[in-house]
Amino acid sequence: MDEWFQSLTGAWGWPLLDWYLANSWVNLPLIGYGIFLLLAWRNYDLIEQRLVDSWLAQAGGKKGKAQLPLHPETDWDAAVAGLSYPFLAQRGYLWLHKNTAENAAKIINLHRVRTRAEWRLERN
Fold this sequence. Notes:
mainly alpha
């Protein structure tokens, strides 16, 4: 494995590997950030689910024939209300945002929310 790493990195590979092996504490901040990121992704999913539920509540018609409004109302304040973790991050992205209605409105993919809501309407 060491030889493979050196073949990829060249002359600076061995000093880097030696430094890493002597300073393995570097993993702690990376693992800590990973935990922060997982919790922020969880907030994203919770907000998205709240929006789906809100849009489904606005769907008119009889059961089985309900349809989403063309432009459903999106209450961002209600979507982020009560979430205890202070950060938000879009799935697959590494940048954390403060958990506010404005930031949620910027990063939540409304096309995906609509697709999930329509899928749930079809399933009912």
